[in-house]
C-alpha cells in the first residue's frame, strides 16, 4: 500500500515534536540551585557508576557522544524522553491523586483541537481506514457527582499508526477533538480504532533500539486529557485487550486500570469507560 504517510521520518516527526514542545511548554526557570546541584550530581554519579561497573571503553564513550549528537540533530529528544523517562515522572506526579489513573502524555499532543458536542464524530478523512469505534462514558467527581460540561480532549493515531501534525499528509486535526460532556457528564465519541504504534525507527532512537536488539512498539492506545471546573486534570491513555504489546510497551505506560473492554457492535466496536476526577 502506498500512502503519503509512509514518508513520515524520524527527523520530520522529531522536528514537529520539538517545535510543539517549545511552543506549548515553558521551562521552569526557578528551580533552586541546591536542587539542580543535587539532581545533576546524582544523575552524573549514576553514569559514573555504570562506566566503572562495565569498564566502558573510549570507543563506547565516542559512540555515546555520536548518538547524543544525533538525537538532537533528529529533534528526537521529546520522543526519546517520553518513551524512556516520562512514565516514572508521571508515577511520581500522580502518586497521591485519587480518581482515574493517568499515564504519560507522550510527544504528540496538540492543544486547540476542534470543539465538539457531547456526541460527536472526530474529524477524519472521508475514507478513513480502520474499524469503527464508539467510545462513550461519564465523567464524575470523586464523590460520584456527575460533572456537567466536563471536557474530554482526545487524540490518537490512525489505522497505520500515524498522528496528525506529526506525520505528513494528514489533515491538521485528523482524529483529534475536544468534547464537552452533557449535563450528566456523559460523552459519546465516534472514531476508528488506532493501530499499534512503532516509534520512528530511522532516527537516533531507532538506532539505539536496533543496537540493543529491543523492539519499537507501543500497543494501540487512545490519548485523553479529561478535565472539569474545580477538578484536577487527568492525562491518560486507554488500551485494547489482546494487543501483544500491552505486556512489553516500549514506553512502559500501560496500567491494568487503563484496559478497555470492547464489545463487538455492528461493523465495529463499542467501548465504555468512565472517568473520576479528584477535586482540586
Ligand atoms: C511516543 C509516541 C506515542 O504515541 C506515545 O503515546 C508515547 C511516546 C514516542 O514516539 O515517543
Ligand atoms: Fe501515542
UniProtKB/TrEMBL annotation:
Q: Tell me where on the tree of life, at the top rank, the source sits.
A: Bacteria
Fetch the InterPro entries from UniProt.
1_2-CTD_multi_dom (IPR043029), Catechol_dOase_N (IPR007535), Cchol_dOase_actb (IPR012800), Intradiol_dOase_C (IPR000627), Intradiol_dOase_core (IPR015889), Intradiol_RC_Dioxygenase (IPR050770)
> Which keywords does UniProt give here?
Dioxygenase, Iron, Metal-binding, Oxidoreductase
Cite a single Pfam family from the UniProt record: Dioxygenase_C
Report whether Ribosomal protein shows up as a keyword of the record: no
Coiled coil: which residue ranges?
none
**Domain Intradiol ring-cleavage dioxygenases, first and last residues per copy:** 135-163
| Cofactors named for this entry | Fe(3+)
Q: Which family does it belong to?
A: Belongs to the intradiol ring-cleavage dioxygenase family.
Q: What is this protein called?
A: Catechol 1,2-dioxygenase
Amino acid at each position: 500500500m502506498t500512502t503519503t504517510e509512509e514518508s513520515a521520518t524520524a527527523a520530520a516527526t522529531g522536528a514537529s515534536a520539538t517545535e510543539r514542545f517549545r511552543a506549548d511548554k515553558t521551562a521552569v526557570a526557578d528551580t533552586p540551585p541546591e536542587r539542580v546541584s543535587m539532581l545533576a550530581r546524582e544523575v552524573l554519579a549514576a553514569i559514573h557508576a555504570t562506566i566503572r561497573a562495565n569498564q566502558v571503553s573510549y570507543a563506547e564513550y565516542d559512540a555515546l557522544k555520536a548518538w547524543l549528537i544525533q538525537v538532537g540533530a533528529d529533534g528526537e529528544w521529546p520522543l526519546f524522553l517520553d518513551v524512556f523517562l516520562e512514565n516514572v515522572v508521571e508515577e511520581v506526579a500522580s502518586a497521591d491523586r485519587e480518581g482515574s489513573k493517568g499515564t504519560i502524555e507522550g510527544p504528540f499532543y496538540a492543544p486547540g483541537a476542534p470543539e465538539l458536542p457531547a456526541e460527536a464524530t472526530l474529524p477524519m478523512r472521508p475514507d478513513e481506514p480502520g474499524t469503527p469505534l464508539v467510545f462513550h462514558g461519564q465523567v464524575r467527581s470523586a464523590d460520584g457527582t456527575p460533572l456537567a460540561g466536563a471536557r474530554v480532549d482526545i487524540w490518537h493515531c490512525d489505522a497505520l499508526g500515524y498522528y496528525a501534525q506529526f506525520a505528513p499528509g494528514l489533515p491538521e486535526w485528523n482524529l483529534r477533538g475536544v468534547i464537552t460532556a452533557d449535563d450528566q457528564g456523559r460523552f459519546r465519541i465516534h472514531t476508528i480504532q488506532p493501530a499499534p504504534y512503532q516509534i520512528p525507527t530511522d532516527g537516533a532512537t531507532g538506532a539505539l533500539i536496533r543496537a540493543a536488539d529491543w523492539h519499537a512498539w507501543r500497543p494501540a492506545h487512545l490519548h485523553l486529557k479529561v478535565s472539569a471546573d474545580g477538578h484536577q486534570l487527568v492525562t491518560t491513555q486507554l488500551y485494547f485487550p489482546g494487543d501483544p504489546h500491552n505486556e512489553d510497551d516500549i514506553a512502559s505506560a500501560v496500567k491494568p486500570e487503563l484496559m478497555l473492554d470492547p464489545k463487538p457492535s455492528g461493523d465495529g466496536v463499542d467501548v465504555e469507560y468512565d472517568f473520576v476526577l479528584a477535586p482540586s
